[in-house]
Specification:
mainly alpha, two-stranded antiparallel sheet
């Protein structure tokens, strides 16, 4: 049964995407929601099985709890050897956390799609296609398969932003596509180099990510052998390969200065796609660093830990400072995402248990809370079609429940104790302060972002929700109704999860422990 779950998590949304195109338009919304509910239940079932079997692993795949591995593509290429691609799916504590997050956020995105009125069938089919590729990206343990899902996500995202987005949707969609595609090209170059440098036990070259993490699997004198003296552009080949991965996945996180596509994509994307983009797609960059870059290039990861720490700190401070100056709610949330994802980079740069745990916790926490923040922006935009902060004052009077959820989201995001973000940031700082490779001033500077974060969240709340009711347009008064039942569900679920994992973080971290121990062993820690 666990092995079947791996296939269903990918195939169910992909099958739903096809079915939506075949059924009547009025039934497409119901089909999408049912598919996302079942996908979420499958992710919860996988988490339950994992929790029940904690400490046990598969007989053949080391630290994976369960896995499915089939030969997919294999043919001879003459003197170049034999091309071999595996349909290799697996689950450990690292990707299970993100699978669970994906199930939750994709379900929230389906709930937020209630206001989509244009081309239902096309929208819901593309949304389910995106869901299947996201699940595949987190499950794939063959580099070719991982890259296939990683690349294919661009297609539905491009159309979902470009067709259903705001006034500048075409510009935002093209910018998103070009930035992310550029990162994919860099990752592709490294993937080809690794494939030509690695052999499995049968002597065939392989895209197996677990195999690539073993120095003994590299062909002697190959370009990327751990002891290779080969150079590219005057630098060691492995160093160049790691830097290409760092840039490729850094665009997806995104880190400063590779972040400029993100605010435009968030502002112009429809609310459900902003939820998915912030809640899941940014995490693929952090996951790629942990699954691909660090295990395969451990020495290079530690060699550049100082620079990664610096990039993390700059992203944290820059995102927070720019968010403080925003006058539009979605842009403020978008730049706060740049800041909060900087903690992931800082935690990874620490190269220790606390930092890595904090990075995983931050990805999950930010995924839940950013989805809630963009849902909050979407609720207001649906009523007034304006997200200018200056257009509102005293919203707590006509919309008390909405104001309460906004307060919860803001306080949870700024790291209030009792919520998941506090635990994540605490672990990141414990890792950064205890890291041998990071100077003390880096985490000290990053601490300033906590004050700045409190500033932009509390200032926004004060301007929009407190005081006497005042709106820039009087006709908005009639439309400012409080939350509908659908919106209650949309905001209640992430609020409960942020509180649950803030009070009992061990529910999440306990399942990650074994995977992180293996990850640290690969780094020689």
């Amino acid at each position: 049964m666990p092995d079947i779950l791996l296939h269903l998590l990918i195939l169910l949304p992909l099958a739903g995407a096809v079915i939506v195109l075949l059924i009547p338009e009025h039934a497409s919304r119901l089909m999408e929601r049912l598919t996302q509910i079942v996908t979420l239940l499958l992710a919860l079932m996988a988490a339950a099985i994992f929790a029940a079997a904690h400490g046990r692993t598969t007989a053949h795949y080391g630290d994976l709890l369960f896995a499915e591995k089939y030969e997919w593509i294999r043919f001879g290429m003459g003197e170049l050897g034999e091309l071999k691609v595996l349909y290799f799916l697996g689950v450990d504590g690292l990707n299970l956390t993100l699978l669970l997050l994906s199930g939750i956020v994709l379900f929230l995105g389906a709930l937020a799609s209630y206001h989509i009125k244009k081309s239902h069938k096309a929208y819901f089919s593309l949304y389910l296609l995106l869901s299947g590729t996201v699940m595949g990206c987190f499950l794939a343990l063959d580099f070719f398969l991982f890259f296939l899902f990683f690349e294919f996500m661009l297609l539905p995202m491009y159309f979902l932003i470009g067709i259903w987005g705001g006034e500048r949707r075409e510009y935002a969609a093209i910018k998103f596509f070009i930035y992310t595609f550029f990162g994919s090209v860099l990752i592709l170059a490294v993937m080809i180099g690794l494939y030509l440098s690695v052999q499995d036990s049968t002597g065939a070259q392989s895209f197996d990510l677990l195999l690539m993490a073993k120095p003994s699997a590299f062909i002697l004198d190959s370009w990327l052998h751990p002891s290779s003296a080969n150079t590219l552009l005057g630098y060691p080949a492995r160093t160049v390969a790691f830097l290409l991965l760092l840039i490729g996945f850094g665009i997806k996180i995104p880190v400063v200065p590779l972040h400029t596509w993100l605010p435009d994509a968030h502002v112009e994307a429809p609310t459900p796609i902003s939820i998915v983009l912030a809640g899941i797609l940014l995490k693929i960059g952090g996951y790629g660093m942990m699954r691909v870059a660090f295990p395969i290039f451990p020495a290079e990861a530690q060699q550049f830990a100082w620079w990664m720490g610096l990039i993390g700190v700059v992203s944290i401070l820059y995102g927070a400072i720019v968010a403080l100056g925003q006058v539009q709610l979605k842009k403020m949330v978008a730049y706060s995402s740049v800041s909060h994802m900087g903690y992931v980079m800082l935690g990874l740069a620490a190269c220790n248990a606390e930092g890595a745990s904090g990075a995983v916790m931050q990805m999950f926490s930010h995924g839940v809370l950013s989805a809630m923040l963009f849902a909050i922006a979407g609720v207001l935009h649906e009523r007034t079609h304006s997200l200018q902060i200056a257009d509102y004052r005293g919203l707590s009077q006509p919309m008390p429940a909405y104001a309460a959820f906004t307060g919860i989201a803001f306080f949870a995001s700024l790291g209030l104790p009792g919520f998941s973000a506090f635990v994540a940031e605490l672990l990141v700082f414990l890792g950064a302060f205890g890291a041998e490779s990071l100077p003390l001033w880096m985490p000290l500077l990053a601490l300033l972002a906590l004050l700045i974060g409190a500033g932009y969240f509390l200032w926004t709340f004060q301007r929009m929700f407190l005081g006497e009711l005042s709106l820039s347009r009087s006709e908005w008064r009639e439309s400012l109704q409080d939350l509908t039942p659908n919106e209650w569900a949309l905001l209640l679920l992430p609020a409960v999860l942020a509180l649950l994992f803030g009070i009992m973080p061990q529910l999440l971290l306990h399942g990650v422990e074994t995977a992180l121990n293996h990850w640290l062993r690969l780094l020689g820690r």
